[in-house]
């Protein structure tokens, strides 16, 4: 791939730093741990490491409540240690992507301390302050994502401040040009240190309605659901005024792009497809001036059936603006792990789907060894989401447990006591064990990634939906004269494949079944939950099996 479009052909790997690798025995992962495990990422074959927040923080929301945007929390290391990580990653041709959290700060951030000190303080308007509603109470009916009103009363100044998440996370006022300028300087601070891009947290929520109108009722709300969905977020998310700000962010990041390497913006956006694609920022001249990758989370929410996924991919491809880069995600630090959602056999099929669809894939740490959600007893819960809304299954601790490296104590994650308990299967489900097993999930991920890197049809080719029968999802990837066919059996019974779907002189370039032969003798029948990538004999290469 060329240096300037690495994010188009590359693979992003998300590290949740608290849980990746501990280097000092305190039970919490850190930058030194990430540095120590860079060679695992190289052997896996990914191109970029996205690191969840590592900034100074009181940890009310485990780093998403930031008290200094331009520092490193001592739990994770130092700025010098971060610089060393960037240098060592770049030496291995790995990119570094940081979380950028523009919607809010910690309530202990100096900006907010000043803002709440007096109504007349110059930084008062850096946050969202409102008088109580007539008769008292919060200014409107907006709700916080983690429970309760999205407003906290400040007795000292007699006003409420807005917080989309915890009360310890006051929202910044992005309508204030001084706020925008300060936050763009944060981007530049890290870009000057060599960062290759940012994943932008809750991007759609950074602008709120200027009139602070009540949200309307959600007609689809059912009692017993998360109360947050009682109202439609009409006036505090995805407002039109967000788009010019996204374009400003893009221009800041583009200041640091050059012929050697472009910087990338990835937007966290839980939105319907029609709204999601707006964040590519298609302007009147036909140029894309928004984030290069508005995160596409559709595979996390969709029903795991061939017809549903086929429809989803077709709709997504049709909705993309000309020149837009698609992207796909199976899981992250906020959602149940793929192996828990669909089961271990189907998780192998999901890996092939993720790594053969058109666009940039993002892997979540541990998925490459099939890690599953870990039940966390009530007295060990860490996540404020679960603490604020207990018993609703909303806690995120289960998908944030420590990485399972080996059969050593605490799975090789720490010499101390892990901050979250490990899965019970860590003595056998770990990187070290799976590295020695040609049939393991890790071996499958490595084969698929190697194939994707080796075959232009997979890393930059076009997508063609194919019509298949029963529970088979079929599509072709083509680049110039090369055409590969992907066949995925989502069914519980064997699936005969029509010869019309297969290339001439077909050969199996990859299969989720390690026992599958490369050659196809006679007809092809896929086993339940089996997927294959087919090419012509000429497509066979040293990295394909």
From TrEMBL:
SMART domains (UniProt xref): Aamy (SM00642)
Sequence similarity: Belongs to the glycosyl hydrolase 13 family.
Residues annotated as domain Glycosyl hydrolase family 13 catalytic: 14-400
Protein name: DUF3459 domain-containing protein
SUPFAM superfamilies: (Trans)glycosidases, Glycosyl hydrolase domain
